[in-house]
Write a structure and sequence with these properties.
Layout (H helix, E strand, L loop, with lengths): L12 E3 L5 E3 L8 E5 L6 H12 L1 H6 L3 E6 L3 H10 L5 E4 L4 H6 L3 E2 L3 E2 L2 E5 L5 E6 L6 H10 L3
Parallel strand pairs: 3-4, 4-5
Antiparallel strand pairs: 1-2, 3-8, 6-7, 8-9
């Protein structure tokens, strides 16, 4: 079952690229853009993550936090974030438990999908965008979902 607009975003706790545990509830009171992506340092995921980086100030102006989630290790996330100067949190979802909790799709039944959720300050999902191949659109769609485009 996938999380839809109007649903309360399921809480979770995962390790970050800094080795700290991060819970979604830690961000209650501010909007969160939660994006699931397939893998660190691959062409599409790099384009998507750098697009979020390049518009980071716009998200900050809207009061929103950005959180990226993939099945990569915290160490992989640390290298990826450092290599591309990603200023936001990346979380390690080993075994894809949170991905499955959200019902974030898989492409062709094999590759973890690319899905972005905009969650309001009360923890309610306001917008969902699912596109495996339109990497940069996730940023514009998230801004639209925040009302900040």
């Amino acid at each position: 079952m996938s999380v839809k607009v109007g649903d309360t975003a399921p809480d979770f706790t995962l390790p970050s690229q800094n080795g700290t545990s991060v819970s979604l509830k830690d961000f209650r009171g501010k909007p969160v853009v939660l994006y699931f992506y397939p893998k660190d340092d691959t062409p599409g995921c790099t384009v998507e993550s750098c697009a979020f980086r390049d518009r980071y100030e716009v998200f900050q102006s809207a009061g929103a936090e950005i959180i990226g989630i993939s099945g990569d290790s915290p160490e992989s996330h640390q290298k990826f974030a450092a290599k591309y100067q990603l200023p936001f949190t990346l979380l390690s979802d080993k075994g894809d438990k949170v991905r499955k909790l959200y019902g974030a799709t898989t492409a062709f039944g094999l590759i973890p999908g690319r899905v972005t959720y905009v969650i309001d300050k009360n923890g309610v999902v306001q917008y969902v965008f699912d596109s495996m191949l339109n990497f940069k659109a996730h940023v514009e769609e998230a801004l639209k979902g925040l009302g900040a485009s």
